Amino acid sequence: MKKQGFPPVIDENTEILILGSLPGDVSIRKHQYYGHPGNDFWRLLGSIIGEDLQSINYQNRLEALKRNKIGLWDVFKAGKREGNEDTKIKDEEINQFSILKDMAPNLKLVLFNGKKSGEYEPILRAMGYETKILLSSSGANRRSLKSRKSGWAEAFKR
Description:
One of its GO terms (molecular function) is hypoxanthine DNA N-glycosylase activity. By secondary structure, the chain is α/β, with parallel strands linked by helices. It has 7 helices and 7 strands. The strands form 2 sheets. Strands 3-2-6-7 form a 4-stranded parallel beta sheet. A 3-stranded antiparallel beta sheet has the order 1-4-5, with no helix packed on it. The longest helix is centred in the last third of the chain and has 12 residues, at 145-156. The protein is globular, with a radius of gyration of 14 Å. The relative contact order is 0.22.
């Protein structure tokens, strides 16, 4: 089944952009980035910015990100995928990253949430951004929670 990504959550103040791959089924139903309760994205990011993002509504989460100059988007505009595994994404359409220069002129750092999105790191690096590939926030990745948490925290130290 072909799945559509979400529009970017960025503005002229965005300095850090986190790129995922493509929303999963639960996120699409909720129309929310990282909408699956088993995904640790909001817990990880909340611990980094010092806010309990897990316990507030989605709109307030996005506002907290903007206050902290953090944006969200996905590498893929659309793609076919059965279920939620990134390894099953096929026939993907890549987002137009060229719009970032105008939409987020202060963007400096692009973080990739997991291996699949990280495959596109060279494109953003070639555009002049500092880049880093992070361990995925997926709940399926919990066995490495400690190293994942420290890796995410380290990426935000600038």
